[in-house]
Amino acid sequence: MVYNRCVGTRYCSNNCPYKVRKFNYFDYNKRGFGVGNSLYMGPFHKRKDDEWDLLKMIKNPDVTVRMRGVMEKCTFCIQRIEQAKIAQKVKAGASGDVIVPTDSFTTACAQACPAGAIVFGNLKDPNSRVSHLKKQTRDYTVLDFLLTKPRTTYLAKIRNQNKGMPDYHEWPLTFEEYKAKMGDPFEEPHAEGQNAAEAGAEKL
Questions:
Q1: Are 59 and 65 in contact (CB under 8 A)?
Q2: Domain assignment of residue 156, yes or no
Q3: What pLDDT, in 10s, does the model give residues 36-63?
Q4: For residue 102, is it left (φ>0), alpha (ψ between -120 and 50) or beta?
């Protein structure tokens, strides 16, 4: 996303197959042209001027706050990526070793996730953790047939295949729920109609 070029047409949100782009309806900058001018004030502007200085402290100083009227999406914490690149260039000096070490930083969501369900890393490095995870057979891509080549992929859920366990299911539980509601899709089609016809033939 190039925020300073976005004019808020929302065509990208309409055409995004993953529906990850969101429109910014609120002006978190609270910028005005003077005292009493509410041209850029958002719908929640009912605060005193001295209170707004305190609210500025909750913002991340490494991330720009976009104005109302632009599209927003995940940038994979581009500020952390750039900081890691700059730090490695400063450390390398004239040696020219500007490649960021493997798994030396991560995104904010992956860092805050208590279950470790999100993994971020360099896909070009075969020794990184995310590269090892993507090589698993459980790795899959959402809407792969669109050929959009997304960077975000997922790992399929691991189900218990031990028949001796009490939670074992021959089919996934979601399939059992579907079969109970809609019927077994693997039954022969028109089986009920054939049985009815046979029963009618016997009566004749």
A1: yes
A2: no
A3: 555 455 555 555 554 556 666 777 778 7
A4: beta
Q: Which amino acid is at 29?
A: N
Instruction: Read off the DSSP letter of residue 36.
Output: T
Angstrom distance (rounded) from CA 204 to CA 202: 5
SS3 39: coil
Domain that holds residue 2: 1-73
For β-strands 154-155 and 22-23, DSSP reports them as: unpaired
Evaluate if residue 200 carries a pLDDT over 70: no
In whole angstroms, how far apart are CA 11 and each of 14, 71, 97, 180, 201? Answer: 5, 10, 41, 41, 61
Name the residue with tokens 């197959």: 17
Is there a domain that residue 191 lies in? Answer: no
How many domains, the chain?
Answer: 1
Among 200, 119, 110, residue whose Cα is nearest residue 153: 119
Classify residue 119: in a domain, yes or no.
Answer: no
